[in-house]
Amino acid sequence: MLNNSLTLENISKRFASRPGSTSQLQVLDNIQLDIAPGEFISIVGASGCGKSTLLRLILGLDEEYDGRILLDGKPIAGTGLERGIVFQDHRLFPWLNVEQNVAVALKNSPLSAKQKRDTVREHIELVGLQDFIDAYPHQISGGMAQRVAIARGLVNRPSVLLLDEPLGALDALTRARLQGELQNIWAKEKITMILVTHDVDEAVFLGDRVVVMQPNPGRIRRILDIDLPRPRNRSDSRFIALRDDVLSDFAELH
Questions:
Q1: Structural domain containing residue 139
Q2: Rounded Cα gap, residues 74 and 184, in angstroms
Q3: Span 51-78, average pLDDT
């Protein structure tokens, strides 16, 4: 097995249908997915298909499920520094500046104080915020705050970075610009990224493969290879054809 490959083996997940109830609602059913090291995977699907639940399982926040999740051939157990996450809400601490917000992720790191400082500054530069290192969250835009969150997710140099609708709350122009930056960061860092999004255009623009899920319960409907050169051009007829192909799945589900 390749180093840092991620394997989801027959993942199924159930929740109690309501508090105190013995009946259960199946949220995920038999998810099988092999992700190569350094691959960018986009996961799309309607609300309720279990996309974010799947990320929680990979992150290790919930260990009550059927099946196995393997990283480098070993079952994951709880959270770990080798798996980072960026949420839709940047979740920055308002009383900390940009540098301090990124440094929070290194609290339990074995690095020396100097190594931590150098690593934090390197990742702030990676997301293009070196001129805002002393700024506080209220002094920067929403797009810049998300870049801080991305730097914080990357600063531990995880093998896998999980992205849960990280650009979903941004305006269209900021979102498009950050999609390009996210692609550049992925190319530089060469780590595995798994993006959950409702935006089919975003999924095709960023992903090596697009995993299309369907709800009730959440299953993989199909997986498309996005065999387009990078950086991608949204006006390319091949891009448009792939995007429309994915969109056709949603038309069939309604």
A1: 38-64+77-253
A2: 29
A3: 93
H-helix segments, the chain: 51-59, 98-103, 113-126, 142-154, 172-189, 200-206, 237-253
Residue 30 has pLDDT above 90, yes or no: yes
What are the tokens at 221? Answer: 């409907």
Count of domains for the chain: 1
CA distance 123 to 185: 10
95 lies in some domain: yes
Whole-model pTM over 0.85: yes
Helix, strand or coil, per DSSP, at residue 162: strand
Q: What is the CATH classification number for the domain harbouring 168? A: 3.40.50.300
Q: Which residue has the tokens 């350094």?
A: 38
Q: Which pLDDT does position 109 carry in this prediction?
A: 87
- Residue closest to 206 by CA, chosen among 253, 157, 243: 243
Separation in Å, CA 195 to CA 17, 53, 70, 139, 168? 27, 13, 18, 28, 11
Of the candidates 124, 113, 12, the one whose C-alpha atom is nearest the C-alpha of residue 64 is: 12
Whole-angstrom Cα distance, residue 57 to residue 55?
A: 5
pLDDT tens across 208-238, in order? Answer: 999 999 998 999 999 999 999 998 999 999 9
Q: What is the mean pLDDT of residues 13-37?
A: 85
H or E stretch covering 90: none
**Helix, strand, coil content of the chain in percent (nearest 5):** 35, 25, 35
Q: Which amino acid is at 11?
A: I
With beta carbons less than 8 A apart as the criterion, state whether 86 and 150 touch. Answer: yes
Statement: residue 82 has pLDDT above 50: yes
Q: Is 3 among the domain residues?
A: no
